[in-house]
Amino acid sequence: MPSPDRLKSRYIGSFQFMFGLGTAVGPMLGGWMFLQLGQLVWPALAVGSLLATVLGLAAVRTRTEPAAPAATAASHPPRKRSRPTTPEATPKARPPNPLHVHRWSKERSGNGTHQCPPASPRSTAA
């Protein structure tokens, strides 16, 4: 995979930015170099291009990773089960949520009694 999906937009934006920068700055820099160096600008550009090629190839070369040792059954412990297998190991009902908001309403009950929404089936397990 050349790049993670979450970074593709950043890579494309950087790529486009560098082309835009080269289009804007390149002619100005080339004209200035030609005025300063005259006909020697061409060998200077050749050396700069060769250096950029070497650095570019060094940056994108593929790295070989050392081979991983073969896994043996003795080197890895057995995996634990992710779910409980016995009824005693099943989780109990959760305690009430301390952030639960209680509503008091005289309009609904007439006497100011406590009005909570009905409990979900998951929270009523005993």
Structure description:
The chain starts with 7 loop residues before the first helix and ends in an 11-residue tail after the last strand. Helix content is 43%, strand content 3%. Strands 1-2 form a two-stranded antiparallel sheet. The chain has three helices and two strands, in the order ααβαβ. The protein is mainly alpha-helical and 126 residues long.
Give the oligomeric state.
single chain
Low-confidence stretches: none
Task: Compute the separation of the termini in Å.
Answer: 50 Å
Total number of helices = 3
> What proportion of the residues form beta strands (DSSP E)?
under 5%
Global shape: elongated
Strand order of the largest sheet: 1-2
Which percent range fits the helix content? 40-55%
Radius of gyration: 35 Å
What is the makeup of the main sheet? 2 strands, antiparallel
The total count of strands amounts to: 2
Mean pLDDT: 76
**SSE succession:** HHEHE
From the helix content, strand content and strand pairing, which structural class follows?
mainly alpha
Q: In terms of topology, how is this protein built?
A:
Layout: H1 8-37, H2 41-60, E1 103-104, H3 106-109, E2 114-115
Antiparallel strand pairs: 1-2
